[in-house]
Write a structure and sequence with these properties.
It is a single chain. 32% of the residues lie in helices and 22% in strands. By secondary structure, the chain is an alpha+beta fold. It has three domains: 110 residues, DNA Primase, Chain A (Alpha-Beta Complex), CATH 3.90.580; 86 residues, no CATH class; 128 residues, Dna Topoisomerase Vi A Subunit, Chain: A, domain 2 (3-Layer(aba) Sandwich). The strands form four sheets. Strands 7, 8, 9, 10, 11 and 12 form a six-stranded antiparallel β-sheet that branches. Strands 2-3-4-5 form a four-stranded antiparallel β-sheet, with helices on one face. A hairpin with a 2-residue loop joins strand 8 and strand 9. Helix 1 packs parallel to helix 2 and helix 2 packs across helix 3. The protein starts with a strand and ends in an 8-residue tail after the last helix.
Length: 332
Amino acid sequence: MLRTKTLISDFSEVPHTWVYEHYLNLPERLNGQDVKIKSIFNPKDSNPSFFVYYSRSSDRYKFKDFSTDRQGDCVELVKELFNMSKRLDAVLKIINDYNEFLSKTDGNYQLENFIVQDKYKVDAYILRNWTEFDQKYWMRYQIGSKVLEHFNIHPLDQFTFKRGDEKVDIKGIGIYGFFRKDGSLYKIYQPLVKNKKFIKIQDYIQGTDQLQFDKPYLVICSSLKDVMAFTKLGFGNAEAVAPDSENTTIPEHIILAYKEKYKAVCTIFDNDEAGIKAMLKYKELYGLPYAHLNLEKDIADCVEQHGIANTRITLYPVLTKALTGIKKELVV
C-alpha cells in the first residue's frame, strides 16, 4: 500500500480517487471498478443515473450524470457541485479539503491496489422468428414489418454477455437487435426490462444507413423508435435520424455536414425535462431550432395514444415552424 503522510500544496499530489470518494460520499473505495449512484445534481432522480467510471484513455476516473448531462473529471465535478465559475477555484478547494482530511486522519490516505475491471460485452447472439407478441408490441406504434425490415431490426432469441472467461446468456421475449446495413449489431433493445432497456454495442447515429439525402429537411429524433414512427406520419419531404440517446450529442462536424446537405435541420426530443434540456443544448451549440411536441412523452407514444392522423395534425405546425419559420411548407 502507498501512503500519504504530509500536507500538500500541489494538486497533482491529490489522489483523484479521493476526490470522488470524499465529495460523493461513495459507498465503496475506487480501485478500478465503475460505480453508479443517484444523481447529486438532480433530487428527482428515481433510478441511479450518475456514473463514476475509469477512463482508460486518460488513466483517470471521470463522471457522467445522465439525468443532467453533466460530465468531466474530478475538478469539473467539484466546480459543478459548488457552482464555481473557474476550474482554478475548484482545484484550490480540493487541495484545502484534502489537507484538512489529512490533518484529521494523521496524514494517511491509503491507495487501493488498482485493478481495472473488464466490462461485460455482448459476445454473441441468436436470431429468432417474429412472433405474435412482437407484432402486438410494434403495432402499438403503427410500426409494421416493412418499417422494421427497412431499419434492420430483428428479433433475438438470446444474447451472451462476456467478461474475461465469464459468460452469461440472456434470454426472454421481446429482445430485439438493431443492425447496420452491413449486418453489424450496434444496439440491443429490451422494452420489457426496466434497467437495461438499451445495450450499446457500438457508436452509431441511428437511421444513417436509411438516409437518401433527397429531401430538403432533416429531423433529429430522440430514438430509433421515434424515427420509425415519424416515417409513418407522412411528411414527404423530411428524413429523420436519432443519436444513441438524448444524452449523446451528435458531433459538430456531423451537424455541419447535415446543414450542407439539407435546407434545414431541427430536433424533436422527448417531452420531459431531459428532452427539453437536450433540445436547448443543440440550439445553443449548433443553432438548431426545435419542435416541442407537447402531447405525450415522444412521437411513438403520441402515435400509440392518439393515432397517426392526430399526431400529424398536432406536430405539423410546430415542426413546420421549426424548419421553415413559416406556417406551411412540409408536404403531408
